[in-house]
Amino acid sequence: MEVYLKFSPFYFFCLYCASFIFFTFAFNYILYDDALFYKSFGEILGVDRINTIIEKQSFFLKISYFLIPIFLFLKIFFTSTCIATGVLISEQNLKFSQCFNIALKAEIVFLFELIIKINYFSILGVNSLEEINIRPFSVLQLLGNIEPWMSYPVSILNIYELTYWFFLALFFSNCIKKSFGYSLGFIAKTYGVGLLLWIVFVVYITLFLF
Description:
Blueprint: H1 2-6, H2 9-31, H3 34-41, H4 47-90, H5 96-106, H6 108-124, H7 129-132, H8 139-143, H9 148-155, H10 159-176, H11 180-209
Helix pairs in contact: 2-4, 2-6, 3-4, 4-5, 4-11, 5-10, 6-10, 9-11, 10-11
């Protein structure tokens, strides 16, 4: 773990972004095909309309690859800011760069989520676009159809998010040389609160739009 945490954050971020882009491309290439759009919209839209949707989808997917590094950086920055705020309040001896490194190295969990998702749907198959948005091994998968505003907060309740919390606490514990239990409580009071506020914001926007 010491070697992992000491690995250059800059090179790790570059490698992580490249890996995430590669597996995102693999995910889109394997699972998004024209037949899936016809299955999803065939009964409610005409062929010309579906073809237009396919063209727009292809365009936005290409753009999304360039946005992945920005999205990942903002996500990691958000987590590290939550932790750094708690460090500042509790007067812990930890720099922001160390908080960023902790958040960055723990982020590897979500790369494995993407890889698992590719294999999961490759084996079981996909019948609609809605199925692709489901996170395997999450509460949302068990509940099925729910209100749109509940989709995001329920999707957060998954094994990957729990593992992410575990690694955040583990790496934080290693940096401050305190127990894992203390570190897990600290992550819950910092990142956990930040995540809760973000969920409330997303739910508000969803209710406002829909």
